């Protein structure tokens, strides 16, 4: 039994999933997420998950192909390279592919002026969105450290999009750069106009995030809006256009890319 290992290394967390051969898009046998500070737990969590996987087929569970979208820099790449070389994982180095933004892949054409400048997590999210909703003009918002909001046409062209500070970053920039504003925790959008500082900050940051998604939806005249990422549970309820909350759109895109290879 040979699994595909998908890894989405963002600027806050490393997410991973094991997909059995022929699995439905996004249907993982095991998955996990580790903050960078706790990322050292990743190799043992992966080894334990692999050992307990009992998908279809025979033989001991093993990792076949590995596809990694890393936007967290060279140090994280070096760390992942070292961990994936652990003998107990039995991963052959040539099986590891570092996913990159190409002019075209898995039915998506990348219309960025310089295609390789596009964050590879955004390209993967576009592939995932198009694979989930072919024939739709899509806006995909990935709400992580940064929030990215991108437009994909029904024929699979990634047009480009927006980058803004993520919800956590927006809120912490206020706390760090003002004398009187506290660090607020993420939460639900307060009703109406906020009558206290915490709610006013949350209200402002959520309105900025949700408003940008609404703006992109209108600009693209989209018929589908996908919201994903660690901050999606807070942002999605504040978005006034029809949308669906999809976990791990980047890994869904990696899965789609492997399936089309
Ligand atoms: N329990 C949590 N742990 C970490 N981040 C969280 C949590 N809950 C919400 N968040 C939000 O999700 C963001 C991380 O989401 P994620 O999609 O993993 O980001 P990235 O891909 O940039 O690593 C944080 O910046 C924060 O705004
Ligand atoms: C915008 C990003 C920082 C988002 O990263 P994340 O919040 O998922 O960690 C990443 O996609 C990136 O570094 N992009 C390169 C620039 C671009 O996409 O134009
Ligand atoms: K992001």
TrEMBL record:
**Gene Ontology terms for molecular function:** ATP binding; pantothenate kinase activity
Compartment annotation: Cytoplasm
Instruction: Give the binding site residues for ATP.
Output: 8-15, 145
GO cellular-component terms in the record?
cytoplasm
Does the keyword tRNA-binding feature in the UniProt annotation?
A: no
Keyword terms of this UniProt record = ATP-binding, Coenzyme A biosynthesis, Cytoplasm, Kinase, Nucleotide-binding, Potassium, Transferase
**Cofactor comment in the record?**
A monovalent cation. Ammonium or potassium.
Q: What is its EC number?
A: 2.7.1.33
Q: Which domain of life is it from?
A: Bacteria
Q: Which reaction does it catalyse?
A: (R)-pantothenate + ATP = (R)-4'-phosphopantothenate + ADP + H(+)
InterPro entries from the UniProt entry: ATPase_NBD, Type_III_PanK
**Which pathway does the UniProt entry assign to this protein?**
Cofactor biosynthesis; coenzyme A biosynthesis; CoA from (R)-pantothenate: step 1/5
- Specify whether Cell inner membrane is a keyword of the entry: no
GO term, biological process aspect, one: coenzyme A biosynthetic process
List cofactor names only. K(+); NH4(+)
Report the active site residues. 121
Q: Which Pfam families match?
A: Pan_kinase (PF03309)
User: Which residues are noted in the entry as substrate-binding?
Assistant: 112, 119-122, 197
Q: Which family does it belong to?
A: Belongs to the type III pantothenate kinase family.
Q: What is this protein's function?
A: Catalyzes the phosphorylation of pantothenate (Pan), the first step in CoA biosynthesis.
Q: Which NCBIfam families has this protein been placed in?
A: baf
Subunit structure as annotated in this protein's UniProt entry = Homodimer.
Name of the protein in question: Type III pantothenate kinase
Gene name linked to the record: coaX
């Amino acid at each position: 039994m040979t699994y595909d290992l998908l890894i989405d290394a963002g600027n806050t967390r490393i997410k991973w999933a094991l997909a059995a051969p022929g699995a439905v898009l996004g249907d993982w046998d095991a998955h996990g997420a580790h903050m960078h500070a706790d990322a050292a737990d990743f190799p043992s969590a992966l080894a334990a998950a692999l050992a307990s996987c009992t998908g279809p087929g025979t033989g001991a569970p093993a990792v076949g192909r590995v596809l990694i979208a890393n936007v967290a820099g060279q140090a994280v790449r070096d760390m992942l390279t070292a961990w994936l070389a652990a003998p107990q994982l039995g991963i052959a180095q040539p099986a590891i592919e570092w996913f990159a933004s190409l002019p075209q892949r898995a039915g998506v054409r990348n219309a960025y002026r310089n295609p390789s400048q596009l964050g590879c997590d955004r390209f993967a999210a576009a592939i995932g969105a198009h694979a989930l909703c072919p024939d739709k003009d899509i806006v995909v918002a990935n709400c992580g450290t940064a929030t990215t909001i991108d437009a994909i046409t029904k024929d699979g062209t990634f047009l480009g999009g927006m980058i803004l500070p993520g919800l956590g970053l927006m809120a912490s920039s206020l706390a760090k750069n003002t004398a009187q504003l506290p660090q607020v925790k993420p939460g639900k959008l307060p009703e109406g106009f906020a009558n206290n500082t915490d709610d006013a900050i949350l209200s402002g940051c959520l309105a900025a995030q949700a408003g940008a998604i609404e703006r992109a939806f209108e600009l693209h005249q989209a018929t589908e809006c996908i919201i994903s990422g660690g901050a999606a549970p807070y942002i999605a309820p504040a978005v006034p256009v029809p949308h669906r909350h999809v976990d791990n759109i980047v890994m869904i895109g990696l899965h789609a890319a492997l399936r089309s290879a």
